[in-house]
UniProtKB/TrEMBL annotation:
Name of the protein in question: Membrane protein
Taxonomic source organism: Glutamicibacter nicotianae
Gene3D superfamilies for this protein: Endonuclease/exonuclease/phosphatase
Domain of life assignment: Bacteria
Database matches in SUPFAM superfamilies: DNase I-like
One Pfam family per UniProt: Exo_endo_phos
Ranges that cross the membrane: 14-34, 50-68, 75-93
Residue ranges of every copy of the Endonuclease/exonuclease/phosphatase domain listed in the record: 110-302
Entry keywords, A to Z: Membrane, Transmembrane, Transmembrane helix
Length: 313
């Protein structure tokens, strides 16, 4: 009787370890192939943008491994651990900050309609030479311009997206990115180290119930970037997409993201004790990131980003 009970216990433990290994492989597969999950009822959007947070499943699996025990369980646990470390680990490590010989400081924030003047003031005080703001409220452009008149006398604004610069701006162009009304722009910043093509972007909102307009804008932006032969390009703003979003991939294929200078991800929304998503970005081509900071300024639901860009020779 005791021998039979021991056999049943062993069989149960074998089954438990088998299903545990399947769970580990499932989590690893979800992290690797999250962009292939059908976007039914917004599922793809949710999984894509929360992909880095899937690593939270690893401590849960570790507790389960301690229960089911066995060498094979801990070997199986290594699979999602390695996958997460390869896919998302590097983004959690801080980049080395440096002071380049030739640089451009760019600040960006979605000001949530009412925080434009305060954001402009604080970004300028932080050292931003080019400031781009999104979701600027009606009537705020003159106030922001007056606030920055002495330090950033050059400006260009399209709808609710604006750029104020300490350097002259050339070749301004509004971009509707397929939306039907202008919600982005591009302009050349005549810096002391040559012209820099700047794209200032505010992509449409993305919700599980609908994100077609945002997807279209990101795809259109990627098309503009693919055709742009400028030697130095910076794109900054609220893209309403994280780096792991499948619809952000066309933009990321054209530009490189400025790497966060602190530990963890540069999560910018919502501005709470525990922000969840990094939907604001500074993207680069032909230049390098010297530093990227997240700033808690102005009365907005987004954090601001301040990037020091190495313009090289």
């Amino acid at each position: 009787m005791a021998h039979s009970s021991h056999q049943r216990l062993s069989a149960s433990r074998i089954i438990a370890r088998f299903f545990f290994a399947l769970l580990c492989l499932a989590l690893a597969g979800l992290m690797v192939f999250h962009q292939q999950i059908p976007d039914v009822m917004g599922l793809g959007l949710i999984v894509d943008n929360l992909a880095p947070w899937m690593g939270l499943g690893i401590p849960v699996l570790l507790l389960m491994a301690l229960v089911v025990r066995g060498r094979i369980s801990f070997i199986a646990l290594l699979v999602p651990m390695v996958v997460w470390a390869v896919l998302f680990g590097p983004a959690f490590l801080p980049s080395d900050q440096r002071v380049p010989e030739a640089s451009l400081q760019v600040g960006t924030q979605n000001v949530h309609e009412s925080a434009g003047v305060q954001a402009a003031r604080e970004l300028a005080a932080h050292g931003a030479q080019v400031i781009t703001l999104q979701e600027i409220g009606e009537g705020q452009e003159p106030e922001i311009t007056a606030e920055l008149a002495e330090t950033h006398p050059y400006r260009y604004m399209v709808s609710t997206v604006g750029v104020w610069s300490a350097y002259p701006l050339k070749n301004p162009e509004p971009l509707d990115l397929g939306l039907g009304w202008d919600r982005a722009l591009r302009v050349d910043v005549a810096s002391g180290s040559g012209d820099v093509r700047l794209y200032a972007v505010h992509a449409a909102s993305a919700r599980p119930t609908g994100h077609h307009e945002r997807d279209m804008m990101l795809s259109s932006l990627a098309g503009y970037l693919a055709e742009d032969d400028s030697s130095k390009i910076v794109a900054a703003g609220d893209f309403n997409a994280t780096s792991s979003d499948r619809h952000f991939a066309p933009v990321a294929n054209q530009l490189e993201e400025a790497h966060y200078s602190d530990w963890g991800l540069a999560l910018t929304w919502p501005r709470t004790l525990f922000p969840m998503l990094g939907i604001d970005h500074v993207m680069l081509r032909g230049v390098e990131s010297a530093s990227l900071e997240r700033l808690e300024i102005a009365d907005s639901d987004h954090y601001a980003l301040a990037a020091t860009i190495d313009l090289g020779n």
